Amino acid sequence: MPAPHGNLNNNKYKPEYATQAHKLCLMGARDQDLADFFEVHRDTIHHWGKLYPDFEQAKRSGKMKADAEVAYCLFQRATGITLRKQRVTSKGEVLNVEEELPGDVRAMEFWLKCRNRHDWNPKQQIQIAGDSQHPLAFLLNEVGNNGTESPALPSKK
């Protein structure tokens, strides 16, 4: 779909934009951020991706590498990590110290919900059975049975 007549953004593209878009996407830029940087509308960014395969490839590879880095860091946080630090004592000595960070439960939950949504969905799926005329008959029957078997007043202990 070509740009409307008089739209100068269609002619604004330069080959070096692919490299710039790649670097911006490595830093987490979204399509709207690219549009703001190049001073065009977000639709123009999509249009450039269709017209210039190098631009689209640069954009995709930058986003993919950034997402992979975040996933790697999330995985490390979920499973725990050993940090190597240097500390300076009051005498001026530099000590190499290893610090163990245990796995973070929230990071574990997030990772599992994203990777295996079916098994780690926080919403419970409950299936209720019954016939078409009385779909809750089994529940009413159970409530009725509990009512006849229990005393009217609670027992004192």
What descriptors fit this protein?
two-stranded antiparallel sheet; 157 residues; 2 strands; 6 helices; flat; mainly alpha
Please outline the helices and strands.
Elements: H1 17-26, H2 31-38, H3 42-51, H4 53-79, E1 81-88, E2 94-101, H5 105-115, H6 137-149
Antiparallel strand pairs: 1-2
Care to describe what's here?
- The chain is mainly α and 157 residues long.
- The protein has 2 domains: 1-78, no CATH class; 80-121, no CATH class.
- The chain has helices at residues 17-26, 31-38, 42-51, 53-79, 105-115, 137-149; strands at 81-88, 94-101.
- The mean pLDDT is 82.
- It has a two-stranded antiparallel sheet with strand order 1-2.
- 50% of the residues lie in helices and 10% in strands.
- A hairpin with a 5-residue loop joins strand 1 and strand 2 (94-101).
- The N and C termini lie far apart (80 Å).
- The protein is built from 6 helices and 2 strands; from the N terminus they run H-H-H-H-E-E-H-H.
- Helix 2 crosses helix 3 (42-51) and helix 4 (53-79) crosses helix 5 (105-115).
- It comes from Grimontia celer.
- This is Terminase small subunit.
